[in-house]
Design a protein that fits this description.
The protein is an alpha/beta fold. Helix 5 packs across helix 6 and helix 9 runs parallel beside helix 10. Bound molecules: zinc ion.
């Protein structure tokens, strides 16, 4: 049989195979390694994976990639990012280090509201142009599937504009970009004292418009003390669910207000952050099959003293995922390898658990466990070729990249110089 591409002489293929399901407990520490492997690719998907000699014998091909004994992993799935904004906020980083509080930074014209103002003023074209190189950097760091949220518009028109920019980026860039509507990222300043008024717009205008335009797959909300309360979040999530959107939550990031419990109640696909989630909340996530998505780079970037309890969650049988949380404020991190390092160092994950969390479990956090996140027959041929001595080297190394090539649907989308 003729295939499009074969990859031969793979030293180790870390398949992360799971049969499409999120990995739990001991499975997370199993990379599903096939030594001396080969992969046959047809129509962008993995047609076969097995011993290199067997693959070579079985197929003819248009293109052959000699992996030269290198290590291959699935492409990263970055399941939580906010990449569509106008200006970066590095001055706030300096202010935070100088000891300024969030309120002081806000009063000096910083904080999320500054991102909202500039995003409202920008055109779709400007948003696309500014976001494009950010996502290209992520691709160079191995990300082949990306979730991108709106949430810097906070009006019907500007939220739709952000989602339109995300749709444009998905068309232009060679990776899969999955859009999440996050009009409930914050209360806009004009509704500061009229939460009910903004909730009405969210529920009666924005969510129906997002549904009608078919412009987002997920709805997310920032459930936190002083932002969206549990009751307010329930209203918004219920409306989103009724309109057929899948659910995500920023839950229990700073204060445990019962966000994890609500994510379980509402049947969210994932609950993200969870830095302060209670034991009850964590057990509720497990019982409801919600993926806990941890964002260690955010806590690192905020110089946090404590981190989400990744080790405890894995030991309790939860399918932990990790993501960058790339955004202009709390975490300007585009690197899944660095996120893996921080998950290991600050949350106690092993390197292989961190790789499971960054690939197959992250795919499940986007409801794509059957499509991406592992190297298995029938899945997309989304592959990273590494120049590393072992998988442990990925989180061990901090700083530069050791990625040789990134393939999306079997095509090379990045090659190191
Ligand atoms: Zn976020």
């Amino acid at each position: 049989m003729k295939v499009d591409t074969i990859i031969i002489n793979i030293g180790q293929a870390a398949t992360m195979a799971s049969g499409g399901k999120a990995k739990i407990a001991g499975q997370m520490n199993d990379a599903g390694i096939i030594a001396n492997a080969g992969i046959a690719i047809k129509d962008g998907r993995i047609l076969n994976i097995g011993p290199s000699a067997e693959i070579e014998q079985k197929y003819q091909w248009d293109e052959a990639i000699d992996a030269k004994g290198r290590i291959l992993t699935p492409g990263f799935v970055d399941s939580h990012t906010h990449p569509v904004f106008v200006h970066t906020r590095e001055d706030e980083f300096a202010m935070r280090i100088a000891g300024k509080s969030y309120v002081e930074i806000s009063l000096a014209g910083g904080g999320i509201r500054s991102s909202i103002q500039s995003s409202r003023d920008a055109s779709v074209e400007e948003l696309v142009e500014l976001s494009l190189p950010r996502i290209q950097k992520m691709i160079a760091l191995g990300t082949t599937t990306l979730e991108a949220k709106s949430g810097y518009g906070l009006s019907t028109q500007s939220e739709l504009k952000q989602l339109k920019a995300i749709a444009e980026l998905a068309k232009i860039l060679p990776i899969d970009i999955i859009a999440t509507f996050m009009g409930a990222h914050e209360y806009p300043i004009e509704y500061e004292n009229d939460h009910e008024g903004y909730l009405k717009i969210l529920i009666d205008e924005m969510i129906p418009a997002v549904k009608e335009q078919g412009i987002a797959e997920f709805c997310d909300i920032f459930t936190e003390a002083h932002v969206f309360s549990i009751e307010e979040s329930r209203w918004v999530l219920r409306a989103a669910r009724e309109h057929g959107l899948k659910l995500k939550m920023h839950a229990d990031e700073i204060i445990p207000i019962g966000g994890a419990e609500l994510a379980a109640e509402m049947g969210c696909i994932s609950a993200d952050h969870l830095g302060a989630a209670s034991d009850n909340g964590i057990m509720a996530l497990k019982a409801a099959g919600v993926i806990p998505t941890l964002l260690p780079a955010t806590l690192f970037s905020l110089a946090a003293k404590t981190y989400a309890r990744g080790r405890f969650m894995i030991d309790s049988g939860l399918p932990v995922a990790i993501a960058t949380d790339y955004n202009p404020g709390s975490c300007n991190c585009d690197s899944m390898p660095l996120t893996m390092s921080l998950a290991c160092l600050q949350m106690g994950l092993t390197p292989i658990e961190a790789l499971s969390a960054a690939t197959i479990n992250a795919a499940c956090a986007l409801d794509r466990g059957d499509q991406v996140g592992s190297l298995e027959i029938g899945k997309l041929a989304d592959i990273i070729i590494w120049d590393i001595p072992s998988l442990n080297f990925i989180p061990y190394h901090l700083g530069s990249s050791h990625i040789v090539k990134v393939l999306k649907r079997g095509r090379c989308i990045f090659k190191a110089q």
